[in-house]
Task: structure prediction
Amino acid sequence: MRVFEFVKMHGCGNDFIVIDDYSEEIVLSAEEVAALCHREFGIGADGVILVRPSKRVQGGAYMHYINSDGSLAEMCGNGVRCFAKYLVDRGFVAASSKHFVADTLAGQRPIRFEVDEDEKLSVASVAMGCPEFLPEKIPTTLLANAETKNGIPCIKEAPLASPWGDFPFTCVSMGNPHAVCFVDDFAALSNELFEAGVEKNLENLNLARVGSYFEKHPAFPQKANIEFACVGTNGISVRTFERGCGETLACGTGACATAAAAILTKRANREVDIILRGGTLHILMDENDHITMTGPATEVFSGSIEIDQLAL
Result:
């Protein structure tokens, strides 16, 4: 019998099951992860975070992140803030330090955080690194059709065919692959992507249909996270179909990728709010192209679960 203590957390509605694995003894099959994340028969989540020790002498900890379908992911922006909250709230990282470095499969992520009157983490700012635009870094088989301000070949609003017409995608890696589509005219999109009689807008777009199509498009050999976005007066509204998860209420790396794509296509300045279904993330991209993501992390509940009793 295997019983796990867990904490359910979320960042802007992107939710996770966080489990202490400092002993590095926990091995979960894809079926077990899917069962844990099942919203009717399990705890319910977009993914599982195993908290493991850092391999570095002065490292904070390593975030081992698994998507709800059991696939291993390089990085998760909302997940790493929840990871930070878990460590701070439970004393693995001193609340007074206000800073530590998290290890992920995508590399080290320095994190600065604020705490409330109970010394619990409330907001975290994560240094997310620089966006990658080279096609082979994303990776994608699409050919570069433009250059960044630094002369790096990139894929800027390249049309990808679909059963509903061509969609222009700008490709970015934030340690994981993203393809961002800015929609300037929803009325021009196919009627098949909206329910009959509803207004054609981002909220009513059938993302499950179009997102799943492009997630598995042959242009993305490792699949891709798919963002549909539109620019408004208060920021950029985004919906993300996450690779290995489906649509989530928020995607941290997707917010960063969207901001980078918006800057590349001259739709936004270097500081912008990304408005997600579950909340808003503030993104800053400095003159050296380093991105900082700031947002909340929330603990929902904790408990224990006997995994062998789940419907697998």
User: Anything to note?
Assistant: The mean pLDDT is 95.
